[in-house]
């Protein structure tokens, strides 16, 4: 029986991807999941800043569209490597493309869980001051981010449309910010 339990644990590998636009709580959720599930987590922002600060790219933190296409080829191979090595991993960041599934064969897809955090217009309108207030809850932002309520609403609405288009799982934040940890089963 012990051998069977170990085999089940060994084969229950999972990569959890947490996506969403800026200020939706991706890093905070990844941190909570890391503490609860004991999975390591990888922030795509850390890769981004490492490449920018080391001079490996001429892109800057403001080049979001270019960064997504620059970072994703690296991140997807990190995910494949984790699965091939039977290692759990949480990957979080806004640089995960909505058509990410096309980059993985079925044997990889069965070990990946995707969650996109999306704030509704109602939530942003009613809680914008809190969103700004908690922007440094987990990570300290070194640059001044002039967060625009209108841009945040537009970005979240766009993400909701794309999640629906690609049939991706999303977590809608509407009246209260109360995200339950997804099951790893």
Can you tag this structure with a few keywords?
five-stranded parallel β-sheet; 185 residues; alpha/beta; single chain; Rossmann fold; 47% helix
Provide a descriptive summary of the structure in words.
The protein is about 45% helix and about 15% strand. It contains 7 helices and 5 strands. Helix 6 (about 120-135) packs across helix 7. The longest helix has 21 residues, at about 65-85. The chain starts with a helix and ends in a 12-residue tail after the last strand.
Summarize the structure.
Helices cover 47% and strands 14% of the residues. It is built from seven helices and five strands, in the order H-E-H-E-H-H-E-H-E-H-H-E.
List the helices and strands and how they pair.
Layout: H1 2-11, E1 15-20, H2 26-37, E2 41-43, H3 44-53, H4 64-84, E3 89-92, H5 106-109, E4 112-119, H6 121-133, H7 149-165, E5 170-173
Parallel strand pairs: 1-3, 1-4, 2-3, 4-5
Give the second-level CATH assignment, the architecture. 3-Layer(aba) Sandwich
> Radius of gyration, Cα only, in angstroms?
17 Å
Low-confidence parts, pLDDT < 50 over ≥5 residues? 1-11
Helix content class:
40-55%
Element-level helix/strand string:
HEHEHHEHEHHE
CATH classification, class level: Alpha Beta
CATH fold name: Rossmann fold
Mean pLDDT equals 87
Terminal CA distance = 20 Å
Count the E strands. 5
Number of helices: 7
Major beta-sheet overview: 5 strands, parallel
* Oligomerization state: single chain
Largest sheet: spatial strand order: 2-3-1-4-5
């Amino acid at each position: 029986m012990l051998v069977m339990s170990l085999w089940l644990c060994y084969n229950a590998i999972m990569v959890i991807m947490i996506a969403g636009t800026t200020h939706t709580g991706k890093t905070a959720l990844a941190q909570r999941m890391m503490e609860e599930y004991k999975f390591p987590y990888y922030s795509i922002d850390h890769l981004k800043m490492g490449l920018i600060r080391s001079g490996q790219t001429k892109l800057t933190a403001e080049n979001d569209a270019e960064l997504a296409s620059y970072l994703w080829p690296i991140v997807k191979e990190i995910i494949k490597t984790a699965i091939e090595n039977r290692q759990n991993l949480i990957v979080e960041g806004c640089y995960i493309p909505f058509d990410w599934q096309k980059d993985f064969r079925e044997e990889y897809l069965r070990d990946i869980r995707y969650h996109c955090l999306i704030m509704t217009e109602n939530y942003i309108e009613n809680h914008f001051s809190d969103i700004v207030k908690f922007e440094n809850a987990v990570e300290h932002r070194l640059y001044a981010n002039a967060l625009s309520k209108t841009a945040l609403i537009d970005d979240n609405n766009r993400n909701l449309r794309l999640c629906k288009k690609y049939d991706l799982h999303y977590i809608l934040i509407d009246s209260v910010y109360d995200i339950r940890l997804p099951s790893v089963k």
